[in-house]
Amino acid sequence: MFSRLLLFVALLVIPGILRAEEAPVEKVGFAKRLTIYLAKGPANACGAGCDRWIAIEGEIDRDAAARIRSFLLAVKDPQLPIYLHSPGGNVEQSYAIARFLRAHKAIARVGRTSVGACSAGTQIDAACLKIKAAKGEVGADLTTRNAMCVSACAYLFLGATNREVAPDSVLAVHNSKLMFVVHGHPPPQVIADFRRREMVSADRDRNLFLAAMGISHELSELIRTVKFESLHVLTRPELYRFGIDTRPLPETLWAVEKETRPYVRKIAQQKKGDGSSFRMMEWRLFCENKDRGRLMFVREFDEGAAGKSTVVMMAGATRAIAFGRLPARFGKYEIWSDPVTSDIVKAMLAVPHLQIGESTPSSDGKSDPKADLKPDVATFDIDTTGLEQGWTQLSASCPATSAGPKPASPLPAAVSPSVNAVPTASPSP
After folding, report:
1. CB under 8 Å to 396, separation ≥6 — which residues?
2. What phi and psi values does residue 364 have, to the nearest 5 degrees?
3. What is 255-405's CATH number, 2.60.120, 2.60.40, 1.10.287, 3.30.420?
4. Sign of CA dihedral 327, 328, 329, 332
5. Contact (CB, 8 A) for 345 and 287
6. Considering only 183-187, 351-355, 417-421, which range has the smallest mean pLDDT?
7. Which string of b and e fits 359-375 if b means at least 16 CB within 10 Å?
8. Which helix (H) or strand (E) holds 221?
9. Are 267 and 285 in contact (CB under 8 A)?
């Protein structure tokens, strides 16, 4: 497993004298030392009106807390969001950093920063790390897709008072493990007693830390059940129940997916009831030609929503985009796909939020897709941040005429389940 939570090396110099130390652990695709730097990206790169953030990435080494503290104390704007991408490392250091973040009411999110000045394909070679270590801001791009904060990084993340885990990023945990290097021949009972005391101490420290961070004790109980050799990716209901990310509608920014046929995508998860479950949803906007696009909407099927199958998207008070009442079914997902004119796309780009709801069929079984959403039908808003930039990028390679448009596939590749998968052992740095 590429990530580890805690690794003690206990050295018995003479029987009865024990010492715990950190042992180096190889983590593929990450710098061996925690790196922190200021990044500046395109407009709205980190949300509406946000183009600057603090990147923290790499392994949490034994000197990380002092460096992070010194860096953050020198930052003029303490409320810049912090984006984490780390496989974990030293637990004690993560606790210390977390407490510092808590004292400064930090904003933390899980996300990957890519510095444009670094060589293609890597973000951890010596030249790139030198660029990141230089004073000032570095030009960069930001994505939450396949970003991870696992093992000890999860503790660091919990220190922030404002925490966001995007639907396409990962926060994962596992239990600790003790490894011993024994010098001499101490009695087996000495080793067994030391192991027990260290595990009890680690559990106690974790419980006290989580309580101080306002996190449910259930998380600690879960961590104890996850073997050191494995990882447990926290589900959206767990993130909500434990008090880690309590947003009722976590969503990604709109971002271009560079597939064979590119599109702009947004993913959201909608809380159902008390938060014991969330409904996955996804929007994809394709460019068919200069005059027309195609909007696809995918969501998990809800058996209790029978009879409310005309989905309506409102771009302001006058622009309605309605999907048909017979979506395609693909496993546990239902999929709608409709063409949208250039005027409708412009209306979508002009508003900060789009309203989503379902029209109620009339008594004759028909519905009016162009009518205003009825007040008795649940609606919610999704953010349009990133949509304009994405559409501009798509339009640059869009056909100029409307002759023979290529229809969008009714079944998108890798529909939504991929956003819950654990990233590969060697993620792109």
Report:
1. none
2. -90, 10
3. 2.60.40
4. negative
5. no
6. 417-421
7. beeeeeeebebeeebee
8. helix 217-225
9. no
Which residues contact residue 102 at a Cβ distance below 8 angstroms, ignoring those fewer than 6 apart?
A: 159, 160, 161, 212, 213
Reported as a single tens digit per residue, the pLDDT across 384-399 is 999 999 999 999 988 8
Neighbours of 96 (CB within 10 A): 20
CATH code given to domain 7-241? 3.90.226
In the chain, where are the structural domains located?
7-241, 255-405
Q: Which two tokens stand for residue 102?
A: 């808590």
Task: Give the residue from 11, 30, 32 showing the smallest Cα distance to 20.
Answer: 11
The model carries a pTM of 0.85
- Give Rg (Cα) of the chain: 24
Three-class DSSP category at 338: strand
Residues 6 or more apart whose Cβ sits within 8 Å of residue 112: 57, 83, 85, 142, 143, 144, 145, 146, 147, 428, 429
Q: How many helices (H) and strands (E) does the chain have?
A: 9, 23
Element (H, E) at 393: helix 387-395
Residue 416 tokens read as 């939504």
Residue linked to tokens 């129940």 = 241
Which two structure tokens, joined as six digits, stand for 109? Answer: 């999110």
Q: Give CA–CA dist 330/342, Å, rounded.
A: 29
Query: What pLDDT does 401 receive?
Result: 65
Among residues 148, 26, 23, the alpha carbon closest in space to that of 90 is found at 23
Nearest alpha-carbon partner for 322 in 307, 337, 302: 337
- Give the whole-angstrom CA distance, residue 282 versus residue 175: 33
Please provide residue 178's backbone torsions phi and psi, each rounded to the nearest 5 degrees.
-105, 130
Topology match between the domains 7-241 and 255-405: no
CB within 8 Å of 172: residues ≥ 6 apart:
3, 148, 149, 150, 151, 154, 231, 232, 233, 234, 422
pLDDT, mean of residues 256-274: 93
Question: What residues does 232 pair with on adjacent strands?
Answer: 173
